[in-house]
Amino acid sequence: MKTKTSGAVLAVTYALYALLVIMLTPSLVSGMVSELAFSLQQAAEVISGSMLGATVGTLIVLTNATKIRFRRYFASGIVAIAVADLFAALLVDPLHVTLTFILRGFGGGLVVATAFIFFARDPRKEGIFAVLLGAQLILAALGIYYMPTLMQTIGWGGLFVCACIIGVVLFVSSMQITNNTVSAAKTENPTQANLSAFSWLTISVTLCLTSYLLHFVANTAIWTFFEQIGNALGFQSQAIADALALSMIVGGIMAIVPIVLGTRYGRSRPLLSSIGLILISALLLIGQVSELWYFMGAAIYNTALSIGLPYYQGLLAELDPSGRALTVSSLIGSAGWIIGPLLGALLEAEFGFDGMLMGMAGIFAVALILVAPMVIQADRRTISL
Length: 385
Hints:
By secondary structure, the protein is mostly helical. The protein has 2 domains: about 1-185, Growth Hormone, Chain: A (Up-down Bundle), CATH 1.20.1250; about 200-385, MFS general substrate transporter like domains (Growth Hormone, Chain: A). Helices cover about 85% and strands about 0% of the residues. It has 16 helices and no strands. Helix 1 packs antiparallel against helix 6, helix 14 (about 270-285) packs across helix 16 and helix 15 crosses helix 16. The longest helix has about 60 residues, at about 325-385. The protein is globular and about 55 Å long.
């Protein structure tokens, strides 16, 4: 148990290091504009480059999911990230910075996809995903709050030098991911998912992944424009920052729910309830709302996200213990980050923020309808066993 726990802790730590760009995207964009004099378009291209690299890294892991060597993939990904962070600290040209972020994204894709397979083979998968998501939310909240101060004190270069040093330390620690740790992380259930064409399991996984994509598209669209929604409502910038940071901390704390509950009451109740709640959070922001109402919408949004996503990922791991479906979900997350903000911007330009929020609520409803039969059936199958 001790070896299993230490392996999971290391894998979560590596994933958090790999996800720094996603967690700190708003702050990094601001840093590129203020510190490097990039335009918003150039900053967006840097972030898109990171997502492109992550897609390539994830695909490499996906093609080797059944014979993955955890230590090799973790170490390789961490080295790529650390090297990219070093170059990011030294380079200021938009093209060069974009290339370094592609490399960082590539390493991040290797690390996160490998971590997902690692988690899929652990019987405590829901709890592990909850810890990962909760930590992301809390670190992102701290980043939003402290990043302006860090930019003023150590600057863009100093920030990435620190990230590089962290990478070196994590690379050394990755040597502890031994074959024994890998074995301990494997699921005790010997049944392997049969993802042959036209099987019921294939249909279940496909519907679950489609629901996951729709969920990601809607939640990234809303989160991308949360600050702009507050601006449109006439709130002060500091009030908006405080509301978003506090809501993310609330969401991070609420990530304890999947850890405590696990699958004691199945996955259907917490998963379907969380999708319903996030749908409601979108509707709460429609119209001329108060600052308190705005914070409540953000808090419900992050709480629902913290509870729901671990059960989504646990369901995929249950359907396919090999971890391939879970690795595909990492790709889907990247796709959601690309599609969601673009779709949200299109809807906002045509119908305003209220229309965009109504559209995203509709997408959440479709996601709920698609996943409901799959998770209910999975619960029944688990109970029958």
